[in-house]
Every structure is written in structure tokens, then in C-alpha cells.
């Protein structure tokens, strides 16, 4: 048995493949429900914000996910959010829900990116703390916060 011989590994691919390189989310164009606003008050860097236009019911869910400092929200009062209403809010914000095996649900953002949330069981209701955790993950991966959402104007207005 030859113990002294060490085999070295040689990398043959010098440049990354096209599918290995991902474009930053900021380069993706706005989804159908995103309104692009230029903040005129900050003229030095002309910051561009993407505002997601959602229904009033979805807006309440997102405000519960990204609470203000006082935590005076509907979820804080009753403690739970229905899973189907959460999925509807995510869909309203430009995500497509794909049910995977088990309780995993992948939400794919139309403008790029994906995130997996697990459907609670046996009862399909999200606890306040789980909803806050989902909000933290959406902030981390997509840069969403309270200011990212607005109630869409009605069609007749």
C-alpha cells in the first residue's frame, strides 16, 4: 500500500458558465403590479423605489409581516393569519405559488428570485411569529419592507 502518494485535483473549467452567473435582482424589470417611482426629494442619487400595488386585504397581511414599532396590527390582536389569505397576498404581490412535495410551497417572483415557505399543518393558519419570520426572509432576499406596498386604486377611480 502506497500511503505517501497524494492525488491532486485539477480544475478544468476556467470561466463560470452562463447559468452559474445570476443577474442581480435590481437589474430585473418591474413586474406587472409594480409601479416605479422616482423620489424627487433626494436629488443627489435620484433613488428609485419599486412599490407593489396590492388589494386592501393583502396590504393588511403585509403590514402584519412588516410591523411598525407599535406592533398595533390585526395579527397582533388575533394572533393568526389564514394560509390561503397569505398565499393570495403573495400572489397579489407578484409571486407565483408552486406546491412542492409535502408542505413546501415555492413562491417565484415574476421579476426574478424564489423563496420557499412551508404550509402549517394540521391547521392552515400562520402564527404571528411565523409571519414575522417570513417578513424577515422577504426583507433579506428581496429587499421588501413596509414601504414596498401600497393599496392599488380601484378600477373605477
Automatic annotation (TrEMBL):
Q: Quote the biased-composition stretches of kind Basic residues, using this chain's numbering.
A: 1-14
Location of the region described as Disordered in the Swiss-Prot/TrEMBL record: 1-42
| PANTHER family, per database record | CLR5 DOMAIN-CONTAINING PROTEIN-RELATED, IPA PROTEIN
Name under which the protein is recorded: Uncharacterized protein
UniProt source species: Endocarpon pusillum
Amino acid at each position: 500500500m502506497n500511503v505517501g502518494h497524494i492525488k491532486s485535483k485539477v480544475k478544468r473549467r476556467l470561466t463560470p458558465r452562463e447559468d452559474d452567473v445570476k443577474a442581480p435582482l435590481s437589474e430585473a424589470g418591474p413586474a406587472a403590479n409594480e409601479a416605479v417611482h422616482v423620489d424627487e426629494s433626494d436629488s443627489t442619487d435620484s433613488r428609485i423605489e419599486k412599490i407593489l400595488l396590492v388589494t386592501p386585504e393583502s396590504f393588511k397581511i403585509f403590514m402584519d409581516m412588516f410591523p411598525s414599532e407599535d406592533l398595533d396590527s390585526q395579527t397582533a390582536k388575533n394572533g393568526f393569519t389564514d394560509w390561503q389569505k397569505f398565499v393570495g397576498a403573495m400572489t397579489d404581490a407578484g409571486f407565483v405559488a408552486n406546491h412542492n412535495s409535502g408542505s413546501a410551497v415555492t413562491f417565484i417572483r415574476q421579476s426574478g428570485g424564489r423563496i420557499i415557505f412551508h404550509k402549517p399543518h394540521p391547521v392552515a393558519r400562520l402564527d404571528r411569529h411565523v409571519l414575522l419570520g417570513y417578513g424577515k426572509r422577504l426583507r433579506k432576499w428581496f429587499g421588501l419592507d413596509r414601504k414596498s406596498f401600497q393599496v392599488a386604486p380601484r378600477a373605477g377611480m
